[in-house]
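Milestone 3.1: sequence recovery, worked example.
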């Protein structure tokens, strides 16, 4: 019938139909991964290592500032960077298999981390911290943070 409108003419932006911003058939990109859930999972797993690396870099940056100038403000920034790091891996630890040895190991590392941070904070606030002691404490704390990722 000459007066009928075809579906392709009604929706010219469908893939393969009409003109999109990049020319014929380009109105929508083909979905290479399939469903939304697959895309979401791929994006989340791709972003996880980057975010952990970014948090480690932030801890390292704050550690360098603390080493250069051991002030209470820099201690607070260093502790905040560690807190953000721990929050970032909280999901990762929460999704791991709940084995007794894993939980006990994590709790032991967190206790050691808390003790090291408290000792570092006390020594800086009391003015008893030497640069070499601060560097050693920072390296121990960084090692404990990395142990949490294993």
């Amino acid at each position: 019938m000459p007066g009928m409108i075809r579906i392709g003419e009604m929706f010219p932006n469908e893939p393969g139909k009409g003109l999109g911003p990049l020319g014929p058939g380009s109105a929508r990109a083909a979905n290479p991964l399939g469903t939304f859930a697959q895309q979401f999972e791929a994006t989340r797993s791709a972003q996880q290592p980057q975010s952990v690396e970014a948090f480690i870099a932030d801890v390292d940056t704050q550690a360098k500032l603390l080493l250069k100038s051991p002030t209470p403000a820099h201690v607070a920034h260093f502790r905040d960077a560690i807190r953000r790091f721990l929050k970032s891996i909280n999901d990762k630890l929460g999704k791991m298999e709940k084995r007794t040895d894993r939980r006990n190991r994590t709790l032991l590392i967190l206790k050691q981390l808390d003790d090291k941070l408290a000792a570092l904070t006390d020594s800086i606030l009391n003015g008893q911290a030497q640069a070499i002691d601060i560097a050693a404490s920072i390296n121990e704390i960084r090692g404990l943070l990395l142990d949490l990722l294993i």
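The domain at 49-149 is CATH 1.20.120.490 (Four Helix Bundle (Hemerythrin (Met), subunit A)). The chain has a mean pLDDT of 75.
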